[in-house]
């Protein structure tokens, strides 16, 4: 079964991806971010709700505010290779605002690049194909998401050179004491000339928020 799934992965890959306009290589930050999102998909969601439902909850590639969304919960996925620990980059003052009706969680993944490690971007993408291989609609959504992100297998040889070891994975609930910036932190509205506010958070001392 596994061999057939892998053959099917390569067949679909040639059909969907080889015909697209060549994409630039994803940056290291984009690669680790995508790996982290796929880890949440394969290790957290699929075992809990099944492949078809899990892939429907992946909204980040299609422009949603949070990476994974479903009624009652949203999950923002963050990756870091920082030697200082759980240091994560936040994109904008509203990224850690909870959904209108529900809770927000942050799934943080700490990675370390090592030449002898097993985890690669092409490898985890192939694992996703194998998990979703029984459902055509789920595979189509996976491929659409990868195209939106800018992934192309034309660069797999390059991506295979970056190999990662997972140091830690943890799911944090964003509560009142979670370190974040939101619009309510500002007494006055941001100046009209300020378009974006990015910042970093340090979750090293927030084990109490791990689910």
What does this structure look like?
35% of the residues lie in helices and 21% in strands. Helix 2 packs parallel to helix 4. It is of the alpha+beta class and 211 residues long. The model has no long low-confidence stretch (mean pLDDT 89). The chain has helices at residues 2-16, 28-49, 51-56, 121-132, 136-149, 156-160; strands at residues 68-70, 72-80, 87-91, 102-113, 164-173, 198-202. The strands form two sheets. A four-stranded mixed β-sheet has the order 1-2-4-5. The chain has a two-stranded antiparallel sheet with strand order 3-6. The protein is globular and about 50 Å long. A hairpin with a 1-residue loop joins strand 1 and strand 2. It contains six helices and six strands, in the order H-H-H-E-E-E-E-H-H-H-E-E. The two termini are 34 Å apart.
Task: Supply database-style keywords.
single chain; 211 residues; alpha+beta; 6 strands
Summarize the structure.
Helix content is 35%, strand content 21%. It contains six helices and six strands. It has a four-stranded mixed sheet with strand order 1-2-4-5. A two-stranded antiparallel ribbon has the order 3-6.
């Amino acid at each position: 079964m596994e061999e057939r799934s892998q053959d099917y992965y390569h067949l679909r890959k040639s059909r969907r991806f080889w015909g697209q306009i060549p994409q630039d290589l994803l940056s290291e930050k984009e690669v680790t971010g995508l790996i982290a999102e796929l880890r949440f998909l394969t290790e957290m969601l699929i075992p809990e709700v099944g492949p078809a439902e899990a892939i429907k909850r992946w909204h980040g590639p299609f422009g949603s505010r949070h990476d994974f969304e479903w009624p009652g919960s949203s999950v923002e996925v963050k990756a870091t290779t920082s030697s200082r620990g759980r240091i994560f980059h936040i994109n904008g003052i509203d990224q850690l605002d909870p959904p209108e009706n529900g809770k927000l969680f942050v799934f943080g993944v700490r990675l370390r690049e090592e030449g002898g490690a097993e985890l690669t971007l092409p490898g985890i993408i192939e694992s996703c194909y194998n998990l979703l291989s029984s459902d055509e609609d789920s595979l189509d959504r996976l491929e659409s998401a990868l195209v939106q992100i800018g992934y192309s297998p034309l660069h797999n040889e390059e991506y295979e050179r970056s190999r990662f070891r997972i140091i830690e994975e943890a799911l944090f609930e964003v509560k009142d004491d979670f370190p974040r910036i939101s619009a309510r932190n500002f007494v006055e509205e941001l100046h009209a000339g300020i378009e974006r506010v990015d910042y970093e958070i340090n979750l090293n001392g927030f084990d109490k928020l791990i689910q």
